Give the backbone structure.
Amino acid sequence: MSKKKKVERPRYVKYLNRFLFLIIICLVSLIVLKANPSLQEKVYKTVFQNNFSFAKINDIYEKYFGSSLPFVNEEETEVVSSVKLEYDKSKKNGDGVSLTLADNYAIPAISRGLVIFAGEKEGYGNTIVIQRPDNVEVWYSNLDTTNISLYDYVKAGDTVGEAKENTLNMYFQKEGKFLNYKDYI
């Protein structure tokens, strides 16, 4: 009995199939929404008026289809960082926590997610907000420098930036409510 040899498809075919599948899904979705105004209104409210988790959508996509970026080596994306957020002291700061860091400490992201805000936030200073796949937003504020931008996808351990005067303020929020920081750091 002869064994069948598995034929490896070229890489571009794999990405072309993903692209065509997404186009078909988008077209079917648009047809269904156009035909049903009440569903169209529900989708509008969910996407534009509620806190929508783009990080969760990306997580689901990567689970079933692989990387959302077409030319990323998928083996490299599976690396898990062992970098942890290290701090000398912590104290409660309003709805979050203030952490005292070492000089010139490169702040690592404590979890993966999508950057949904990058810039000055009134009352918080220079802030990066990362939305995790579980819809929890992690705020890194009082930053002096940052090296990530809006809509970047950040992996755990990626450098977020450096804190101003060695003090990092962190907040955790889900659906507009602040969470207990002790559950996350």
